[in-house]
Design a protein that fits this description.
Elements (H helix, E strand, L loop, with lengths): L1 H11 L16 E4 L4 H17 L5 E5 L8 E7 L11 H9 L3 H15 L9 E7 L5 H13 L4 E8 L2 H12 L6 H17 L13 E5 L4 H10 L7 E5 L15 H7 L15 E4 L6 E6 L7 E4 L1 H21 L9 E5 L5 H9 L3 E4 L4 H8 L4 E5 L5 E5 L1 H16 L5 H15 L7 H15 L3 H5 L7 E7 L7 E3 L4 E4 L3 H9 L6 E6 L5 E7 L3 H15 L1
Helix pairs in contact: 1-4, 2-3, 2-5, 3-4, 7-14, 7-15, 10-11, 10-14, 13-14, 17-18
Bound molecules: 2-acetamido-2-deoxy-6-O-phosphono-alpha-D-glucopyranose and zinc ion.
């Protein structure tokens, strides 16, 4: 009863603005920053309840709108494992955020608490780790989150400061493993495992086209600044030049910069020019959970060669498969690990073909990190990436246990056999790459380590396969929820007849492939088309967009 009174009093201080309809969506709540205070307060309550439900394990609450405009903001919850909050709670999140009055809100809370048997008043405090990106509205929203958490008896907020989204997820995971979860430890773990991977590069590689200099577009967000800190710990042998780091005067967050811009527009971000032609460049998004590479070509009429999430997936798959093969040659059981790649329908068809030709198992899920992550965790080694650059590599506990004895043996038996070195490399990859969620900083270091290992230039990497020409369009509709899909978003279920129309258009184009889906973050329906030529891909996308709108 006391809890009810506290919640009601606190919630009254954060009324829902009229006309606002929030949905937890693909990656949490997102809206114009100033309209979000009520939603963030309520998400604070949600996070506290989630922790109570999970035996007071630490959970995370991140305030960010990723690659969206600087005026936008958003909020999402990380589960104790460090991954996205379970989808089972999303309807509750929507109900909380949508409750018109403080009284309604408190009623929704208590109904759910009863239903889920959430224990109030347990002895152990529930910890909610808070993070935010560099958006100006972040500070006030963080305060709203703290008040939401404070309104739940037994919950405490721990402010971890300005962070990348993956840093916060990493911290939540580590905290629940009972290990150090500070930012220093994050940087140390990444830089140490990277250094050891570099030390494990073969002495004389067949090729030696790797250039240690790389230029990074930080999207004028939190990633550039964090990369700057990480660089202080990196060994010589990698020269990172950060641009769009978000310092005063460098430009606006996500405005003509960042991974989303580079990948969608296939254009040169601000801060870069044709005088950078030929250089290996990388781009992070606003909260540093996406990474793409690009090379400015300097060729007439062509701006950049994009090296997207699909190519990162292909590079990681190739390297890990090679190391597993060495283990297998050495007769190690770990070499027979089940390795899988996970993609979405946005993956370029040429990447899927490349992976399958390499002998990889490839699975498809709907868009959104939570879907890919869940699928990838079914493998001994599961690699997932969205074309937009979000992804990581997940290692099962069973697989890591199989590697451990090999590592111990190597330590006492330097320099070790090829299979022992392969085991050590895979171990270091598992330490470097974020196990909670896709992380542009750790992904960046893994790409660099592999390119160096192989002695490859960005062109070598890019020529693993040639992308099929593709086109993305968005169609504004009155209500995007009338479109529903199945089979990892490749088939339209509703409205009836639409899939037949898409099939009929697609059949007109050689190598044509096309799908539509309602966006989870914007009020639009997205169209993706692929075909043998750019003109054909454009034509197919346009024709299908007309069917939709
Ligand atoms: C969010 C998702 C991303 C997805 C994108 C699709 C997370 C952390 N992020 O950014 O995975 O690709 O939404 O946006 O899940 P859309 O639904 O508007 O196309
Ligand atoms: Zn992001």
């Amino acid at each position: 009863e006391q809890q009810r009174a506290i919640l009601l009093r606190c919630a009254s201080g954060f009324p829902l603005p009229p006309g606002v309809k929030m949905s937890y969506g693909t990656a949490g709540f997102r809206a114009e920053g100033m309209t979000l205070a009520s939603t963030v307060f309520r998400t604070g309550v949600l996070a506290a309840l989630r922790s109570l439900k999970m035996g007071s394990a630490a959970v995370g609450l991140m305030i960010t709108a990723s690659h969206n405009a600087v005026g936008d903001n958003g909020v999402k919850v990380a589960d104790p494992s460090g991954s996205m909050m379970t989808q089972l709670w999303e309807p509750f999140a929507d109900a909380l955020a949508g409750a018109p009055t403080a009284e309604d809100f408190v009623r929704v809370v208590f109904e759910f608490v009863d239903e889920e048997k959430i224990p109030f008043g347990v002895a152990r405090p529930s910890e909610i780790l808070l993070g935010r990106d560099t958006r100006p509205s972040g500070e006030a929203l963080l305060e709203a989150a703290k008040q939401g958490i404070a309104a739940v008896v037994g919950a405490v907020a721990i402010d971890m400061g300005i962070l990348t989204t993956p840093q916060l997820h990493w911290m939540v995971r580590r905290r629940n493993e009972g290990r150090g979860a500070s930012e220093d430890e994050y940087f140390r773990q990444l830089s140490d495992s990277f250094r050891r991977l570099m030390d494990l590069s073969p002495e004389g590689t067949l090729r030696n086209a790797y250039d240690p200099s790389v230029w990074v577009d930080g999207a004028n967000g939190v990633g550039g600044e964090k990369l700057g800190e990480l660089m202080k710990l990196l060994p010589a042998g990698l020269a990172v030049h950060v641009r769009n780091s978000g310092k005063d005067g460098e430009g606006i967050l996500n405005d003509g910069v960042g991974a989303d811009f580079v990948q969608k527009e296939k254009a040169i971000p601000h801060g870069f020019s044709t005088s950078d032609a030929g250089r290996r460049c990388a781009s992070l998004d606003g909260d540093a959970d996406r990474l793409v590479y690009f090379r400015i070509t300097g060729e007439e009429g062509r701006k950049i060669d994009l090296t997207d999430g699909d190519k990162i997936l292909s590079l990681f798959s190739l390297f890990i498969k090679e190391q597993l093969a060495k283990l297998e040659e050495g007769g190690e059981p770990a070499g027979r690990a089940r390795l899988g790649a996970v993609q979405t329908a946005y993956a370029n068809g040429a990447s899927t073909e490349f992976l399958r030709r390499m002998g990889m198992e490839v699975a498809f899920t709907p868009t959104g990190v939570k879907h890919l992550h869940e699928k990838a965790s079914e493998y001994d080694v599961g690699i997932y990436f969205e074309a937009n650059g979000h992804g990581t590599v997940l290692f099962s506990d069973k697989f890591l246990r199989e590697l451990e004895p090999l590592n111990a043996e190597l330590a006492t038996n330097h320099p070790g056999s090829e299979s022992q070195k392969a085991a050590l490399r895979l171990w270091e990859v598992s330490q470097l790459i974020n196990q909670a969620v896709g992380d542009a900083l750790s992904g960046f270091l893994l790409v660099e380590a592999i390119l160096r290992h192989k002695g490859w230039s960005i062109e070598d990497w890019n020529s693993l396969y040639q992308d099929l020409p593709s086109r993305q369009l968005k169609v504004k509709v009155a209500d995007r929820s009338v479109v529903t899909t199945a089979n990892a978003e490749t088939q339209v279920v509703n409205p009836p007849g639409l899939q037949e129309a898409i099939d009929a258009e697609t059949a007109k184009y050689p190598n044509g492939r096309c799908f539509i889906r309602p966006s989870g973050t914007e009020d639009v329906v997205r169209v993706y088309a692929e075909a043998a030529t750019q003109e054909a891909a454009d034509g197919l996308a346009r024709a299908v967009a007309l069917e939709v709108g």
